[in-house]
Batch of 4 targets.
Target 1
Amino acid sequence: MKKLLRHLRASSLLLLAITIFGCGGGGGGGGGGSSDSPAVSGNDTAPRGLSSSPYQVQLLGTLGEDNYAVAINDSGQVVGNYLADDGTQHLFRWSDGNLTHLVGSAQATDINDAGEVSGWLFTDKGTEAFIYTDQVYLFDLPEGSSRAYALDSAGRVAGRFSGETEQAFLDEDGAPIMLAPELDAYAIGINDPGQILIKELRPSGFHTLLMQPDGSMVDLGSFGGGCTQASDINESGQVAGWSQTSAGKYQAFLWENGRMISLAEPEWSYSSAVAIDDAGRILIKATVGTEDEVFLWEDGRLTNLENFEREYVEVADMNNEGQIVGWTVAGGGKFQAFLATPVR
């Protein structure tokens, strides 16, 4: 059963792993033979044009030194993290113009349409996965560190338990189960049909597996390099993220129907697909020359969002209304969470 949070002495540090640079050993060992179906990928490149579109950008206010928006639901509620004056990190939710502190010494990762939030607490023992509904609930996991990375509209939570190896877990109604316990891996995403993204750690790097509701798994493959990182999955099972080429270059991808399609332009030295909505629109960040740019991919057309006319932005998520959240540099050089809404 979920355990009601009691008073915890905790300390925190900033862990905003929105982008993962480097591919090394993938953070752990892990064996092969991880999927029942072979990986199917390729160097397909999606056709595209180029256009531009305006957005209205709203700063969400401040609760501390720096504020970072990390996820948004279809109702426009935003969840994120902020640094307090003493350097500890806390969790906030923004809704209808109101910025509210939710949890102390914590990291937020996702929010569903019911306003429930997933994440983890920083404790004296490490990290503890939680779901926030009307208050914080912990999971009935074995002794060890844990983190919750994603949740669906029904409140099922996918995450990571760190014991002797990394383990993927799924919690449904307070009853967590370990997924693919033979793998050194953890769960990083889930959609309402019950498809789960699992990051498998391998000696040469890491790959992303798609677990179906029946337990079968497909390796998404790669562009020839050692690492593939999924960022998001929509309700149709389309997956977006980045994959490494044999030359070590990071390229944004769309995976669907067993094929990995590159979304990268030739002049991009780096790109990553950050989020995908149910219509298949994809939010991409890319490095073009020496500049970091934000793009929206839709039906083969790339729209340069021109960083919402700001010198610096970091994008984190997008909802089905096309609203985008992240953070930017505001007054005094501090980071501040923002919400960008397309002007129709």
Target 2
Amino acid sequence: MEEEKLKNILRKYMLPEEVDKAILKIHEINNLKKEKNAVILGHNYMTPDVYYGVSDYTGDSLALAQSAAKTKADIILFNGVYFMAETAKILNPTKKVLIADPNAGCSLSESITGDEVLDFKKKNPGVPVVTYINCSAEVKAAADIVCTSSNAVKVVNSIKEESVYLIPDGFLAQNVQKSTDKKILYWNGKCMVHELFSEMDVSMARKNFPGVKVVAHPECKPEVTKVSDYTGSTSQIQDYIHNEHPEKVLLLTECSMGENIKGENDDVDFVSTCQVCPHMQKITLDGVLHSLQSESYEVEVSENIRIDAEKSLRKMLEIGR
């Protein structure tokens, strides 16, 4: 991205003196990438300085998983939460995979363990387990196939059995159930960001901002997605706003994503609420710079777990979006 355009984006949420400091760090990080043959993957929930300034590939979990599977870099620095960096390591076992803060966790990922999945399979033989990519390597290894919010319906419909266990996000599973004839069993995991949105948020926005388009992520409650104008994954939300250019939008997802979409859609008015993910916010420019300088913190996955997890991921990648 051209430096002046980047500065204009950063000025929307930073003080002028902060923008100048950020630009200097961005230059240093980008130079280090060249020196070390490193590539940076940036999730949509990263702050704009990290998202636009230093990320070579940006997108949702599926897009970044695909980028991770194809990269020729020696070092992968994943700007996202820990399970995402694990996914990159699963697909790139011989490469060094880093994360700027190893404490960037996920309430949804931490809601279920691999042993709990294996226990379900023991009690329910013949019921395939589909796991949302927002989970640990151990859960991916125990599952039969991975999905993302953008391809969950497609993955579920690809399974020949009539019943499917979709984990760990209970709201995602209930939203997928609306679009498939499969019987979906689900775990009651929740995202600490998306579970906070309510029907009241939608009704108040419609009252205060006539004509507003309500755009929700499928990790929101089914009663919220029901009263929304559009529901989609982070990449699908980006495409919807870019293609439709609604005048006013209520965005029911993580705050930084709204900042990133604003950066390329000046004519769209984001009128109301969002929620901050405290884990995503742990990834900062300072942390990214330190991670590249010291090549920390390295993400490791035991080989027996990695092999099984890769099988589940590769099945998903074959299906695509």
Target 3
Amino acid sequence: MNKLPFSSQSCCPVCHACDCSFWTRGRDRLLRITDDEFIYLRCGACGACFQAAPPAPAEISKFYPSDYGPYQKWKQTATPGFFRKATGKLLNSGTRKLRHRLKALYQPPRGYSVFLDYGCGSEKFLGTAKHKGWRTIGVDFSESVVEKVKAAGHGGLIAGEKLWREIPDESLTLVRMNHVIEHLYDPADVLQHLFRKLKPGGRLHLATPNPAGLGSRLFGSRWLGLDCPRHIILFSPQLVADCLKKAGFQSVEIFPEFVTKDVARSAGFLLADMGWMKHEKIPSLVDAPLGVAVLALPCFIAAKINLCDRYHVIAQKC
């Protein structure tokens, strides 16, 4: 790959090395808010994939409309009879370990247990956690989201420097970052702060796209997980583990997520670019029964060999 002399951010925002080279370029294919191109570089030292010239933090909010929600829960749909039984077995097998681990993680321990959803996006998950017995706090960058969180009976705080003064050290039991770390300009700073706010024995759960996965390799700039310009930095599983350990977490577990919808939407972007599909029809591919059946096996294999399109990490403060 050719070295690129970007003056705005030639050095890696994760490890600060300046051995960076061109990775890919992309457009806002998901929401089409802008026609601008965004260049991503890859750090030769730590492997982080990051925007060479991301929008300024003060300008990024325009790329998050009120209905932004590309990571809605994937619902299993009925597949044609020929594939239904095999697909169902794959779905159960491919999600069992992660499903059981998360079920146990989100059961509140006895006593005063505080759950913080960092980058919550809405009050929905907080409601589920509160019903289980957690004391719940939602954090988001959007004032309107925080207001909805408060109206639903949860604690609500705006992300930013003031946040860290509002949460006492060693007061949190569990922190969730569901597809949030890739949106942050300084993820290391956030992880370090969250580590300080967690109690000893507290855990952090994050999920994020995998730039080393099957979808990224197959579709390049059309990969759904690129989601530029909203995704500022993309992390491989090993890089996330390294960042968490640097922040102070001692125990880090990585779990691949078996899902077909990312590959389906990425294929839709390709078909739309070729003129074979209208952009507004792309979401229909996610739940297309035959598509789910056809993609199930390759996506299952990709998850088994750590080439999944997204993954989860559970880290503990010992």
Target 4
Amino acid sequence: MSNKKFADLVERLIASTQNQSIHWNETSQGNIFQVSFKDYSVQIVCTYDDENTCYYRLRIVNENGEVVDEISTYDLRDYLPSAYSEMEGLFSLARRNALGVDKALDSILDQLDLPF
């Protein structure tokens, strides 16, 4: 049952990030981004193997910073067949949101939009 809830969480995090109703933050580790809620935080993590392949995990962290539970794309596959691409997309969205990529692009594009 927990894996289905995690699958629902992934989909809701993607939608909420896309409509900008949540804001992700960068952590001290460049491969982890976090969004905080009332009593818990959610982290999206990218861990690289020896072949430079990223493995994504979603973590639930309590207010003391303890990992309550986490799930990998492999564990999600029964409830979210495209788990790897969904988590990859969520990581990318979280990173862009936390680092302000769209704001940076808008600023640069505005500066390039000079009258001729």
